[in-house]
DNA sequence: GCAAAAGTGTTGTACTTACACCCATGG
DNA sequence: CCATGGGTGTAAGTACAACACTTTTGC
């Protein structure tokens, strides 16, 4: 009786598509691939795949990310579900989009290369298959919102970063210029970064100090009723 | 071959659950029902149902809303997809939550009564089935965000409203008190409301002027680079 | 005439914006 | 010695928060 009620209904393929954001060359990039199967084989596409019985949506997203990049424990966040009847010309598929934030430089693209994966700037995206352009747009809006009031951008770096890099990253995400002194003032007011003794000497002769994000200090900061804002 | 690739994958039941928000007695309410089927029959639940083959997610959401309330053309927005393996004790179901904004007063609950539907304040919600409490929480957060920077709250009213009602509504959504003069100052600065000659004489002897939201003015306002903010 | 809600301005504070020069270093 | 990016403070303007009294009218 119970089974009857549930099982009498239509079932659907559920796909997960990943918008993998990386920061490189002062630009926000998305890791795109040539679609490996028909229809629209070889067209630019997000990395996607089908959800399987034993896994949650979140687990399916991690699986897809791992399949294409061999990376685990990556920060991911759901963007939303896309369910138009004709969104996928290959069949009826409901897709759930997730974005992931990774360090593009240290990112192992050897495996991704097998799939013709490339980092492409969000400001010059090609036409992607199906509704994937819409997914990227929605993901960017969500990322802009989250980045403005939560310290998620640090996931783009391997621990340490210079203030200039951090500002370049925010400019790439917001797609606007920021004032250097005002940006640094906000940062130093929140007092959430630790200055290292080490300098990055690659980008300038003088060298720029590296900083790290202090998670403990951030937790206290929030407990005390403050709000992260950049 | 194409069909093979798609069809070899697992298929899932997809449900849509509706968080129907209404404004009544100076509180933000959700229309809840007693779950009509096993498992957890008669427990408090959101209004939900299964998606069918021929319809999009959005259409399925409209269908569910219509089924329980006989209303069409209601403002709805997707909250997100919920896909934990064991979220529904009756079987493997991925659910997509939507919220809807309605005028609770003029709302036809005769049909809803058939389902034991009741308006319950979001501040004193009972335990709902499955992950429905989480869905409501997420919906409230999204509503708070949207209400702060988009003129969606007017969907709670049938056209006209008093400024006091509008403020009460924002206080219910934000779950905090607002300053009357500051609130009205912001409103009059944006200049998006039209004052009617008519007064509401129910809530006070003096009477409060009714206002309407001017959509054309809002569109110009946005074109000119302004931002809605309340 | 009084209770109950409607309506109305000002001031101090905090935040945001705009803006320009010196510093350190490698080549 | 010079080119390049790193680093720093101040002043003006804007937005936000706090605050209390008068008005209207049905009973």
Give the arrangement of secondary structure elements:
Two copies of one chain form a homodimer.
Chain A: H1 2-7, E1 11-24, E2 27-34, E3 44-45, E4 47-50, H2 57-69, E5 75-82, E6 93-102, H3 110-114, E7 118-121, H4 132-149, E8 161-162, H5 163-174, H6 180-190, E9 193-200, E10 208-213, H7 215-223
Parallel strand pairs in A: 1-6
Antiparallel strand pairs in A: 1-2, 1-4, 2-3, 2-7, 5-6, 8-10, 9-10
Chain B binds a DNA duplex (27 and 27 nucleotides) through residues 162-164, 179-182, 184-186, 201, 203-209.
Pfam families (chains A, B): NUDIX, WHD_NrtR
InterPro entries (chains A, B): NUDIX_hydrolase-like_dom_sf, NUDIX_hydrolase_dom, WH-like_DNA-bd_sf, WH_DNA-bd_sf, WHD_NrtR
Domain NrtR DNA-binding winged helix (chains A, B): 153-213
Describe the structure using short key phrases.
three-stranded antiparallel sheet, NUDIX_hydrolase-like_dom_sf (chains A, B), 230 residues, Nucleoside Triphosphate Pyrophosphohydrolase, alpha+beta, Arc Repressor Mutant, subunit A, seven-stranded mixed sheet, DNA-binding, NUDIX_hydrolase_dom (chains A, B), WH_DNA-bd_sf (chains A, B), 2 domains, homodimer
Low-confidence stretches of chain A: none
Helical amount of chain A: 25-40%
Task: Name the chain pair with the biggest interface and residue counts per chain.
Answer: A-B, 39 and 39 residues
Which of globular, elongated, flat, extended, rod-shaped describes the shape of chain A?
globular
Estimated structural class of chain A: alpha+beta
Q: Ends of chain A: how far apart?
A: 55 Å
Number of strands of chain A: 10
Name of the CATH homologous superfamily of the largest domain in chain A: Nucleoside Triphosphate Pyrophosphohydrolase
Number of domains of chain A: 2
Main sheet summary of chain A: 7 strands, mixed
CATH topology of the largest domain in chain A: Nucleoside Triphosphate Pyrophosphohydrolase
Mean pLDDT of chain A: 94
